[in-house]
Amino acid sequence: MTPAPLPDADSRPVTPGFPPPVRPLKFYAVVPDADWVARMVAAGADTVQLRNKTLSGDALRQEVRRAVAAAAGSGSQLFINDYWRLALEEGAYGVHLGQEDLDAADLHALCEAGIRLGISTHSDAELARALAVQPSYVACGAIFPTTTKTMPTAPQGLDNLRRYVAQAGNTPTVAIGGIDLHNAADVLATGVSSLAVVRAVTEAADPAAVVKAFQALWPE
Description:
Strand order of the largest sheet: 1-2-3-4-5-6-7-8
Mean pLDDT: 92
Number of domains: 1
Number of strands: 8
Pathway: Cofactor biosynthesis; thiamine diphosphate biosynthesis; thiamine phosphate from 4-amino-2-methyl-5-diphosphomethylpyrimidine and 4-methyl-5-(2-phosphoethyl)-thiazole: step 1/1
Helix content: 25-40%
CATH class: Alpha Beta
Order of helices and strands: EHEHEHEHEHEHEHEHH
Distance between the termini: 40 Å
CATH architecture: Alpha-Beta Barrel
Radius of gyration: 16 Å
Strand content: 15-25%
Binding site for Mg(2+): 82, 101
CATH topology: TIM Barrel
Number of helices: 9
Largest sheet: 8 strands, parallel, barrel
Low-confidence stretches: 1-13
Pfam families: TMP-TENI
Function: Condenses 4-methyl-5-(beta-hydroxyethyl)thiazole monophosphate (THZ-P) and 2-methyl-4-amino-5-hydroxymethyl pyrimidine pyrophosphate (HMP-PP) to form thiamine monophosphate (TMP).
GO biological process, one term: thiamine biosynthetic process
């Protein structure tokens, strides 16, 4: 997929910047429904994303509402994937957008609401485009081959990730795509801020134990 051009300064003013995460993102679980959000919150995951691709209408709103309620008052930072209007209306902590969502989303409304914003990137150009809106974090991937979703680009690998981390500067970076406990330490060694996983928790026999095992990779 060819990334859309950088926002034109005359037609789309850059936002004044989104607030940073309240806490380090660290272990980031991407899960399909509110029940999984609740499980990850109970396990103490640092960050959780609701990424639901099956529901719509009122059922989707109720799922977002349940997820927001599950994370409320906890130490887990919850991001809603794609559905930025619902995230705003339901008082979500954060929203995560893909490159294709940047032109459609009302970034100024999100910024004014104080919501945190994460943006997916898959190349140097997409990373530059994301950094232009001063998000709360940028996600870089897929680092390794993944079967979770069809990716628009080849796996990025660790060398590219190191470059993306340097390019992002002080903006937190999240690595995603094919990450598990066997390669997680090598990914963290690039200097990336956070590790995001899907199947490593959703297909685990003991998801809570996986959360703790990942979190042990960060120094106290």
